[in-house]
Amino acid sequence: MAELINYFYVAGVVLLLFGAAIFVHEFGHFWVALKRGLKVEEFAIGFGPIIWSKEHEGILYSIRLIPAGGFVKLPQMLTSEALEGKTGNDNDQEEEDISDSDKAEELPPVSPLSKILVAFAGPLMNVAFAFLIAGFLWFVGIPKPIDDPIVGYVGEKSREFKEGVMPGDRITEVNGEPVDAWSDVIYTVLGTTGDTVEMKLLRGDEEKNVKIPADKKNGAMAIRSVNLNRYEKLEVESIETPSLLGELQLNPGDIIQAVDNVKVYSQYHLVDLLMVNPGEEKVISVLRDGTVIKLNYKTPEIAGVEVGAVVIPEYGLLDRIKKKFGIKLEPLDLPPAAKADIQEGDIIKKMGGTRITSTAQLIDIIRAQGEQEAEMILLRGGKEIAVSIAPVNGVLGIGLDQNLGLTYNGKFRYSEKSYHPTPLSQVGDVLNKIAITFKALANRSESGVGAKDLSGPVGIFGMLAIQVNHDLRLALSFLVLLNINLAILNLLPVPVLDGGHILMSLIEWVRKEPVSAKFQEWATTAFAALLLCFFVYVTFADVRRVPRLHEIFKTDTQIESSSPSGE
């Protein structure tokens, strides 16, 4: 019952917050239009079919089915019926079938200044609303995520390690830009160019400057990044046996701290420390119920990584049609793993003479290998098999599987002390992130950022739901970002957006006559169609990316008294 109530609470607050951002935007248009003497036919939240409406003093107030925006219907300013739909009371009276253009002819023309003020009022209200929320958060404070820019794992065979990066290093600068959180590192790297980035590291009291590779990673989020993993707090949630680490005498709630007095910074760092020197006994320091206890662990002779799958390409549609009609096909270009006869279930023991202990370590070795051939030792049915293999574009064409036997507490962690950034600081941070995003989009070939990485209403709803489920103040902080985004995007000089109306009005002001109504109508309709296509595209991308609904509602937070020192 409590979970169901939480569902309704989160969903209700999300709709309220998103609706508030849309409402203030449209209210800006509405209020200034009335002040400038324009005729207002409808004030709507959402697009598509009307689900609620009420007429008052000649103005139709409505809520529509698709909660992805809103509009104010102004017959003296060209609007897009493609987005807005038809207005009216849906009866068959002939007088209500008069077109918007006919109505506009009966109304006095509107000055370019009035059009500009009406169009600009919406984004301005979003900015004002953002500052209002930011002022409230300045007063009450925002939960501060424990997101220290501390390196959690770097493989000993990686270029990053060779350049001098080690687990536990605190990143203080990226290309001369100060960073205070791991999210700052991600954004700053995304906004850089070139094959490498320069980082300033702090190790104890010692500062170190390094230059490490930055490139696009493979996968669903193929965006510019560095091959470094963040610090992880290893609080055990569950143990599975038999497994590589399942034999450790751990209990749920234990916090793994060190191996042989070396501080542990991530799960892969833990594996590296435990798997070195087969047959050697290690001492693991664990915090249990506020007391540090010692556990012994003997390193197994075989660690290895299991081949979860060998990726075999499939013939495309055209080739399948050819095959059906008996037309000879070109042979498929098999990945290196298939050519080397690597099979699902094989255990990878060694590669290039290095004993394999984890998936992260193996990936680092493959990256470092380039396209050079190396020997791989496999364990298949109790027998060792040696194969030669050369990566292609850093890929072997295999899926990797390793049952470490431990899962860790994945709660979002926040400091018990809130922080109180000024409204200017909050908005400035948002503007910096938006600038980096636009720069990354403009430099797509290097950054890897494209339309697939942008969020529409589904993504926004999902993010708001996560924030509301954690802390309402976090959702309000996200609303600051959302309002500034809405203001900037609406000011783009594109027909159908506010910036397009402003551009047309400026042209009219200079020319001393309005832009052709037919041209405006065609341009607005065309861009409305493009906008709808883009909306559908990002919605599909969101559906694939946003966590499932039950996962959003089950995400949890944890308040802690301090963050790791990184020393």
Strand and helix layout:
Elements: H1 2-35, E1 42-56, E2 59-73, H2 81-84, H3 100-105, H4 112-140, E3 151-153, H5 159-162, E4 170-174, E5 177-178, H6 182-190, E6 196-203, E7 206-213, E8 215-216, E9 224-225, E10 229-230, E11 236-239, E12 255-259, E13 262-263, H7 267-275, E14 281-288, E15 291-298, E16 305-310, H8 317-324, H9 336-339, E17 347-351, E18 354-355, H10 359-369, E19 374-380, E20 383-389, E21 398-401, E22 406-408, E23 412-415, H11 423-442, H12 444-447, H13 457-470, H14 472-490, H15 498-511, H16 517-545, H17 549-554, E24 557-560
Parallel strand pairs: 23-24
Antiparallel strand pairs: 1-2, 3-10, 4-5, 4-6, 6-7, 8-9, 11-22, 12-13, 12-14, 14-15, 16-17, 16-21, 17-18, 17-19, 19-20
Helix pairs in contact: 1-4, 1-13, 1-14, 4-11, 4-14, 4-15, 11-14, 13-14
Q: What shape does the CA trace take?
A: globular
Mean pLDDT, rounded to whole units? 83
Largest sheet: 6 strands, antiparallel
Number of strands: 24
Proportion of β residues?
Answer: 15-25%
Count the DSSP helices.
17
Sheet/helix structural class: alpha+beta
Radius of gyration, whole Å: 29 Å
Low-confidence stretches: 80-105
What level of helicity do the residues show?
25-40%
Q: What is the terminal separation in angstroms? A: 45 Å
